[in-house]
């Protein structure tokens, strides 16, 4: 697959919770990164553990 297509495919895998950054890096023969085993997804690539937390800050107009 050409580089453009490969980048698009991996980007979709990352933003749709299909692969972790380190899984993508492994496929690309790149070294792992710290905290790269966390699934990311749409919503500005927020990890699963933090989904919903962004709405808890300043709740109620505080």
Distinctive features:
62 residues; mainly alpha; 32% helix
Write the layout of secondary structure elements.
Blueprint: H1 3-15, H2 21-27, E1 40-41, E2 46-47
Antiparallel strand pairs: 1-2
Folded structure, characterized:
The structure is a single chain. The chain has about 60 residues and is mostly helical. Helices cover about 30% and strands about 5% of the residues. The chain has helices at about 5-15, 20-25; strands at about 40, 45. Strands 1-2 form a two-stranded antiparallel sheet. It starts with a helix and ends in a 15-residue tail after the last strand. About 0% of the residues are buried. The model has no long low-confidence stretch (mean pLDDT about 85).
Give a summary of the structure in a few sentences.
The protein is mainly alpha-helical and 62 residues long. It is built from 2 helices and 2 strands; from the N terminus they run H-H-E-E.
Determine the number of helices (DSSP H or I, runs of at least 4 residues).
2
- For the secondary structure, the number of strands is 2
Q: Which strand-content bin applies to the residues? A: 5-15%
Mean pLDDT: 84
| Helix-strand string | HHEE
Q: Note the gap between the termini.
A: 50 Å
Q: State the helicity in percent bands.
A: 25-40%
């Amino acid at each position: 697959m050409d580089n453009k297509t490969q980048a698009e495919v991996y980007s979709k895998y990352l933003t749709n919770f299909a692969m972790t950054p380190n899984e993508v890096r492994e496929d690309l023969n790149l070294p792992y990164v710290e905290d790269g085993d966390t699934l990311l997804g749409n919503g500005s690539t927020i990890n699963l553990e933090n989904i919903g937390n962004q709405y808890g800050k300043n709740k109620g107009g505080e």
